[in-house]
Inverse folding.
């Protein structure tokens, strides 16, 4: 799968920053949609099965009513359910360029399985529509031959619904697991060099998967209440069906929202403390406050039987989702910052090489420092690399050693990551060495 990684060019630091922002936008659109699609498909399958087994028509009706909410029409499925898998794959492979050997396979498999999952779930939904139609036909055309035909297609349709629903949910589950694994890797550099089975079954991935599930359950519950009882004054449904939707909606929202704080805490624990910035904490706290408000409104629905509160509940959980996405995206951008700097250095090198001005004009030490070193080094401050004031004194009178280090950096200080080879020519290394040796004393 190397060819995919080769599609990705090293990018400038500004570019990577932009990708980080774009990723937040894509996740905003994607996570709520795919979460609601996933949980409502499971719910619909479970209730359909129970309904058919116990001959309970309310359950069967419920199964087809709730799957219609996230599968409003096909373009929504493609735009919000399939395209983001590909977009996210490109973005994560860009920011993780050169760090792991299998992350691209994971992302590609997630895209394929996700596409299959969404298509199968849509198939399931349309077969349920058909189930209602064949009954009506039977009543209208009362002749034996068509009756036989209808019976046969109904059985075919029945089998298709069962299979497509089940396989749809399973493929989507696998796709989401892979995608969450890739995202968890981007947040945890300790997983970059681990092997693929270890990563796939790591507890850190599980924590993020369950965080996603709890969020999706809460969102689905709230979306059902919102769609059936709030949006445009609510839908007309039979009383029994209405009671069931309200009950399951409230349960999902309540339990999902209750599990979230604990899972958020675990996800913070799973992070390397170096990547816990103020922003990560701020957005965790915002999410907690929003959840607290959610509990209050859910309580209002239960106690005062005021179903109109489902509007605010839905938006509160949606905003909680946004806060969680920003929190995780910030952690990801912190964790991949070092890789971004390495890519930026490669990018500058690439830029110089396509400009074709390497080694031709006379070499200028300061220019090389500005372009090739300053992303990681300052003279009096630690960045990715050490401050020059700390490390250069030991090279006084040993210019050759310094040039040697720049041409071929060894590992020196365990507190720092190794310095990537800047790929300079000997005369360039000499020029920059001379420049930094006299500049650090100023
Ligand atoms: C991608 C980041 C990065 C870039 C770009 C970079 N360095 Fe470094 N540099 C580091 C890191 C990290 C260390 C610490 C390495 C260690 O201690 O093993 C380091 C260490 C050093 C040291 C100290 C070596 C020692 O003996 O302690 C010097 C000198 C140095 N770099 C010079 C340069 C010069 C000159 C350039 C530009 C041509 C440059 N670096 C570009 C990251 C970078």
């Amino acid at each position: 799968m190397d060819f995919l990684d080769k599609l990705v060019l090293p990018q400038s630091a500004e570019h990577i920053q932009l990708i980080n922002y774009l990723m937040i936008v894509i996740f905003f659109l994607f996570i709520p949609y795919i979460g609601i699609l996933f949980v409502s498909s499971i719910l619909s399958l479970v209730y359909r099965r129970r309904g058919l087994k116990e001959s309970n028509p309310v359950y069967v009706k419920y199964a087809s009513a709730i799957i219609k909410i996230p599968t409003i029409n096909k373009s929504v499925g493609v735009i919000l359910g399939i395209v983001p898998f590909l977009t996210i794959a490109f973005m994560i492979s860009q920011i993780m360029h050169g760090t792991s050997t299998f992350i691209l396979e994971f992302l590609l498999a997630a895209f394929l399985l996700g596409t299959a999952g969404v298509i199968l779930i849509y198939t399931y939904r349309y077969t349920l529509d058909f189930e209602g139609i064949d009954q009506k036909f039977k009543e209208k055309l009362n002749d034996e031959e068509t009756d036989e035909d209808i019976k046969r297609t109904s059985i075919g349709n029945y089998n298709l619904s069962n299979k497509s629903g089940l396989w749809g949910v399973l493929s989507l589950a696998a796709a989401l697991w892979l995608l969450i694994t890739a995202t968890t890797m981007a947040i945890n550099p300790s997983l970059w060099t681990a092997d693929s089975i270890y990563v796939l079954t790591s507890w850190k991935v599980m924590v993020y998967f369950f965080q996603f599930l709890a969020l999706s359950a809460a969102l689905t519950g709230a979306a059902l209440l919102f769609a059936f009882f709030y949006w445009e004054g609510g839908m007309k449904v039979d009383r029994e069906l209405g009671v069931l939707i309200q009950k399951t909606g409230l349960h999902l929202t309540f339990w999902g929202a209750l599990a979230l704080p604990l899972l958020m805490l675990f996800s913070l624990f799973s992070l390397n403390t170096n990547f816990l910035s103020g922003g990560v904490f701020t957005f965790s706290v915002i999410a907690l406050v929003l959840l607290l408000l959610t509990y209050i409104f859910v309580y209002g629905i239960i106690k005062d039987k005021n179903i109109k509160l489902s509007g605010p509940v839905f938006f509160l959980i949606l905003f909680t989702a946004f806060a969680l996405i920003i929190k995780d995206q910030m952690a990801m951008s912190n964790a991949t910052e070092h890789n971004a700097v390495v890519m930026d250095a490669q990018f500058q090198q690439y830029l110089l090489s396509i400009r074709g001005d390497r080694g031709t004009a006379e070499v200028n030490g300061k220019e090389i420092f500005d372009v090739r070193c300053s992303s990681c080094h300052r003279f009096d401050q630690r960045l990715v690399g050490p401050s020059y004031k700390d490390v250069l004194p030991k090279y006084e009178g040993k210019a050759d050693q310094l040039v040697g280090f720049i041409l071929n950096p060894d590992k020196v200080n365990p507190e720092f990551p190794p310095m990537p080879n800047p790929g300079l020519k000997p005369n360039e290394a000499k020029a920059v060495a001379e420049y930094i040796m006299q500049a650090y004393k100023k």
The mean pLDDT is 87. Residues 144-187 form the longest helix (44 residues). Residues 341-342, 345, 372-373, 375-377, 384-386, 391, 402, 405-406, 411-413, 416-420, 422, 424, 432, 436 surround heme C (CB under 6 Å). The CA atoms of residues 207 and 307 lie 32 Å apart.
